[in-house]
Structures are given as structure tokens and as C-alpha cells.
């Protein structure tokens, strides 16, 4: 099978196409013929500095494809099933930048017949992260109506996680406000379904958000906690939640304690690799329901432009993501 691997950390030039033997699934595992592989910031960050004890690594946390072999003790998946996979390269050497990937069955999820492989490969890290952020406040599940009467602020609504957060929050009934850095990204945030879009570069974000939500927002999905710290404190209501999933714009977050205490705020920090398996399972269940409802979409019309690369171009795809690509990078590994 074809794969792209690296045997040392460094720039994207360490990625090399290779041929490898077809892997066989063991008990509790399935093998997936990968059709699309999703590219996330994690991929270039790991490649730049982490081998995690492996002699070679094939990147790719997310993907979609077809089950083509099943190990022992598997009842809910069968050969021929269309699926999406998540955290595929977590704890193992081979992710989805390869023609076949062997995965624990609990990381392999049915993909409805009407759902594209493009969407399947774009779920994973972005959608599960968005779900955890949205359920770190007063609700622990997402479904239509669970966020009724809630106001959610999504920082950076044109990013992949921001896009998923907008779509999931709106599906669950929230009023969604998002911040963006210009009109191009504002168009994408509106396409994703945001009710209100605030340009924090060219306007007074605090005044605009409080005009829309005078009592403050219930929950903030935060991508840049350090530069947005003062804004988040100003616009989050008493007993609100600030859910932090990235450190864009600064490595240190300093909080004024008295002001934070006085608002009884909850901060929830999020990374999927150490997340309780039960929370991962809840997220997968809810994300799957949103997919079935048609609430999660990809493409320009959904606010998440798709950028397709060949498998051998994984280095170029990672470089584009690292440089701030707007939209979602996908590797076309095989025909659907």
C-alpha cells in the first residue's frame, strides 16, 4: 500500500512517499481503505517535534473510507461499511495519510450513505472539539433544543473548529455570535449559520456583543484566550463558561482574580488526546446525530471551503494549514 511517512522530525520535507505491506487488523480492530484524509494543525505540530517512540510515522488524525477487513470480536462494523475515523494517529504510528489504516473499532464510526467522504474526513478533531466546548457549560449533550435560550460566542468563526461550533450550536438551538477579522471571513461565518458576526478588527467588539447580549453570553468557544482575555471577561455573563481549545496569539494566560471570581466564571480547557473516553463517546454520538440531521456541512456554501491535495502532496497541505489556510485541507487518497 502507498503511505506518506516521516522518520525524523522537522519541516514538511521530511515527509516521504513509501510502499508498505498491507496491515492486518487484530482483535477489536478494523482496517479501513482510506478515501479522504483530513489535515489538522496537530499534524504539522507533531511532525515538527514528536515521534513518540515510533521509527516512522504516517500523519493524519481524521479520515473517511470503507471497512475492508474486520478483526475478531467486532459486531457493529462489517466489510463494506462506509465510515469516518477520528484520532487515528493518536498512540499509534500510522494515521490516515495512507491507503489503509488499522484502527480500534471505537474510533471508527458509520458514515450515512447520503454523507460525502469529504464531510466524513472533516469531522473528527474539529467537530469533537467543538462538541466538548459547547457541552462544558450547563449542558452535557447536544440535540435540537438543548441550547435553547443560550447565547454562544464563537471566537474565530471562520476556522474549522469555529465552523463546527457554529453549526452544532445553531442545531442545538443557540443564538450564535461569532468574531472574525474581516469581511471575507464574515461571509464564511454567515454561511456556517452564525446569527450575528462581529468584526473585531474594524469595530468595537465588546460594545457590539453586549448590544446583542446585554446580560452577557452564556458560553465562549475560545481559540485565542490570551489576546481575548479582557473581552471574554467583559462579555461573559455571571456563571458563564469560557471553553479554551487553542493558544492562538499567546502562550500565557493571565487572569485578574477578583474580576474573575466576581463573575463565578468557569474555564474549561480542552485537548482531545487526554479526554475521558466517555466524553469522546458522547461527542461521537451527538455529532453523528447532527450529520444525520444534515446540520453539519462542508464547502464554500457551508462556510468551510475545501482544498484538495493528492496523497503525495501531504507536505504542501500541512504547510498550507500552518500558514493559515482558510477552510479545510483534504487528501484525496482514493476514489470513493
TrEMBL record:
Does the record carry Oxidoreductase as a key word? yes
A GO molecular function annotation here is: 2-chloroacrylate reductase activity
Q: Does the keyword Oxidoreductase apply?
A: yes
Task: Write down the SMART domains for this protein, in alphabetical order.
Answer: PKS_ER
Q: Which InterPro entries match?
A: ADH-like_C, ADH-like_N, ER, GroES-like_sf, NAD(P)-bd_dom_sf, Zinc-ADH_QOR/CCCR
EC class name: oxidoreductase
Record EC number? 1.3.1.103
Residue ranges annotated for the Enoyl reductase (ER) domain, each copy included: 10-331
**What keywords does the record list, in alphabetical order?**
NADP, Oxidoreductase
Tell me what this protein is called. Answer: 2-haloacrylate reductase
Amino acid at each position: 500500500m502507498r503511505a506518506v511517512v516521516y522518520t525524523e522530525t522537522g519541516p514538511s520535507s521530511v515527509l516521504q512517499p513509501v510502499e508498505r505491506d498491507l496491515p492486518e487488523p487484530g482483535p477489536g480492530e478494523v482496517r479501513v481503505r482510506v478515501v479522504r484524509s483530513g489535515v489538522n494543525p496537530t499534524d504539522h505540530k507533531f511532525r515538527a517535534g514528536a515521534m513518540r517512540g515510533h521509527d516512522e510515522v504516517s500523519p493524519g488524525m481524521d479520515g473517511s473510507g470503507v471497512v475492508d477487513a474486520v478483526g475478531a470480536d467486532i459486531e457493529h462494523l462489517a466489510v463494506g461499511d462506509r465510515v469516518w475515523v477520528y484520532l487515528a494517529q493518536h498512540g499509534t504510528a500510522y494515521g490516515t495519510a495512507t491507503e489503509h489504516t488499522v484502527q480500534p473499532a471505537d474510533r471508527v464510526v458509520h458514515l450515512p450513505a447520503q454523507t460525502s467522504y469529504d464531510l466524513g474526513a472533516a469531522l473528527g478533531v474539529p467537530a469533537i472539539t467543538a462538541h466538548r466546548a459547547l457541552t462544558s457549560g450547563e449542558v452535557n449533550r447536544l440535540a435540537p433544543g438543548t441550547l435553547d435560550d443560550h447565547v454562544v460566542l464563537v471566537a474565530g468563526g471562520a476556522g474549522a473548529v469555529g465552523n463546527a461550533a457554529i453549526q452544532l450550536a445553531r442545531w442545538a438551538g443557540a443564538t450564535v455570535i461569532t468574531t472574525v477579522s474581516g469581511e471575507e471571513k464574515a461571509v464564511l461565518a454567515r454561511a456556517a449559520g452564525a446569527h450575528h458576526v462581529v468584526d473585531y478588527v474594524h469595530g468595537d467588539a465588546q460594545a457590539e456583543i453586549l448590544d446583542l447580549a446585554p446580560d452577557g453570553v452564556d458560553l465562549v468557544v475560545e481559540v485565542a484566550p490570551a489576546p481575548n482575555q479582557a473581552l471574554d471577561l467583559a462579555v461573559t455573563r455571571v456563571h458563564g463558561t469560557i471553553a479554551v481549545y487553542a493558544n492562538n496569539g499567546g502562550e500565557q494566560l493571565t487572569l485578574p482574580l477578583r474580576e474573575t471570581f466576581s463573575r463565578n466564571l468557569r474555564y474549561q480547557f480542552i485537548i482531545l488526546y487526554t479526554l475521558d473516553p466517555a466524553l469522546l463517546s458522547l461527542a461521537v454520538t451527538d455529532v453523528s446525530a447532527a450529520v444525520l440531521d444534515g446540520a453539519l456541512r462542508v464547502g464554500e456554501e457551508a462556510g468551510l471551503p475545501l482544498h484538495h491535495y493528492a496523497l503525495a502532496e501531504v507536505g504542501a497541505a500541512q504547510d498550507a494549514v500552518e500558514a493559515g489556510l482558510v477552510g479545510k485541507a483534504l487528501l484525496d487518497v482514493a476514489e470513493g
